[in-house]
């Protein structure tokens, strides 16, 4: 990196994280950084830990800040050791821990999904603007630096390098926005956009997903919800077919269990009844035989229907 800040304006799936890890490893190998702060949305905090484990080929220690404020502060204080020291924290906690992070003094700060700091008046944005001034290298990662208007660039680039667009949002807005409406305070248009884009791209690396022609086809495999997007795999197709078959048979068993219990209950009842009544009543023998014949008819009907269901499921519902 030849400048203090750099913007990786890369679409999702084009390698923002692995590129950042490679850059951090290179700077650490050249003895330019020893401490790195990653700020990201809460939902992807754990992803950074997983990606470092997968791709980092250099010594490092990584801590994800979680738990109480006191626990997070203690973690920051003890992040001193061999290898690159990395702290990962979410945006909501970052500004609350500004004092502790300032004392820790990160050499490199990464803002993942940096549109989170597009509002220059937000507490988190102001905290990262101040932290960005004490670090040696700053980096933003986003595929959508502009979500509402071209003015979204200002706060993100103030964190990166204040010399690009200056330190005053009002001066920036006056130069790039056309004001009108009520008391001339509403933005009705924009100007000097070519210059704005040129300045933004002067420290940016842009990759669009449609330009990355060599990327492999996206494959999602999540076993926890059986969401399998995999084509032409005979083993998986057989596994899915057999599992569905077993599931339907299980439903069939549950559906017939009441009938089965009813039959066995009556069988036990009449066998018990016969022990006491058979010797005293000549007609009980006939009654018992009739009841047993009825029960065996029920059992035969049950097993016949279950066997037919087995064949139907195997041959019709789940074809090869």
Give structural notes.
Helix 11 runs antiparallel to helix 12. This protein is an alpha/beta fold and about 325 residues long. The strands form 3 sheets. It has a 7-stranded parallel beta sheet, sandwiched between helices. Helix 6 links the parallel strand 5 and strand 6.
Summarize the structure.
By secondary structure, this protein is of the alpha/beta class.
| Averaged pLDDT | 80
Helices and strands: which structural class?
Answer: alpha/beta
Distance between the termini: 57 Å
Rg: 34 Å
Can you count the beta strands? 11
Which range best describes the helical content: under 10%, 10-25%, 25-40%, 40-55%, 55-70% or over 70%? Answer: 40-55%
Total number of helices: 12
Low-pLDDT sequence parts: 223-232, 272-285
Principal-axis shape: globular
Beta content: 15-25%
Largest sheet: 7 strands, parallel
The order of strands across the largest sheet is 3-4-2-5-6-1-9
- SSE ordering: EHEHEHEHHEHEHHHEEHEEEHH
Give the helices and strands, then pairings.
Blueprint: E1 5-10, H1 16-29, E2 35-40, H2 45-55, E3 60-64, H3 69-77, E4 84-90, H4 91-94, H5 98-104, E5 108-112, H6 123-134, E6 137-142, H7 153-160, H8 162-165, H9 169-176, E7 177-180, E8 186-190, H10 193-201, E9 204-207, E10 221-222, E11 227-228, H11 234-277, H12 282-317
Parallel strand pairs: 1-6, 1-9, 2-4, 2-5, 3-4, 5-6
Antiparallel strand pairs: 7-8, 10-11
Helix pairs in contact: 1-2, 6-7, 11-12
């Amino acid at each position: 990196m030849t400048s203090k800040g750099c913007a990786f304006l890369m679409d999702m799936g084009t390698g923002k994280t692995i590129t950042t890890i490679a850059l951090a490893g290179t700077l650490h190998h050249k003895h330019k950084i020893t401490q790195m702060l990653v700020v990201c949305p809460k939902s992807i905090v754990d992803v950074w830990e997983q990606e470092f484990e997968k791709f980092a080929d250099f010594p490092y220690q990584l801590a994800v800040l979680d738990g109480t404020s006191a626990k997070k502060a203690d973690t920051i204080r003890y992040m001193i050791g061999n290898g690159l020291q990395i702290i990962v924290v979410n945006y909501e906690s970052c500004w609350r821990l500004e004092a502790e992070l300032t004392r820790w003094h990160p050499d490199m700060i990464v803002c993942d999904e940096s549109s989170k700091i597009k509002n220059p008046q937000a507490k988190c944005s102001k905290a990262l603007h101040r932290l960005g001034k004490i670090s040696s290298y700053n980096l933003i990662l986003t595929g959508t630096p502009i979500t509402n208007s071209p003015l979204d660039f200002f706060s993100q680039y103030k964190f990166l390098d204040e010399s690009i667009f200056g330190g005053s949002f009002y001066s920036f807005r006056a130069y790039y926005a056309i004001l009108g409406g009520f008391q001339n305070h509403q933005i009705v248009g924009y100007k000097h956009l070519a210059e704005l884009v040129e300045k933004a791209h002067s420290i940016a690396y842009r990759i669009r997903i449609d330009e990355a022609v060599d990327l492999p086809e996206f494959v999602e495999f999540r076993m926890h919800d059986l969401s399998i997007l995999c084509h032409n795999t005979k083993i998986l197709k057989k596994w899915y077919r057999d599992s569905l078959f077993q599931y339907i048979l299980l439903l069939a068993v549950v559906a017939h269990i009441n009938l089965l219990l009813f039959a066995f209950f009556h069988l036990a009842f009449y066998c018990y009844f016969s022990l006491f009544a058979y010797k005293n009543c000549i007609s009980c023998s006939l009654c018992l035989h009739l009841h047993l014949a009825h029960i065996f008819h029920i059992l035969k009907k049950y097993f016949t229907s279950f066997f037919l269901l087995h064949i139907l499921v195997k041959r019709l519902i789940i074809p090869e």
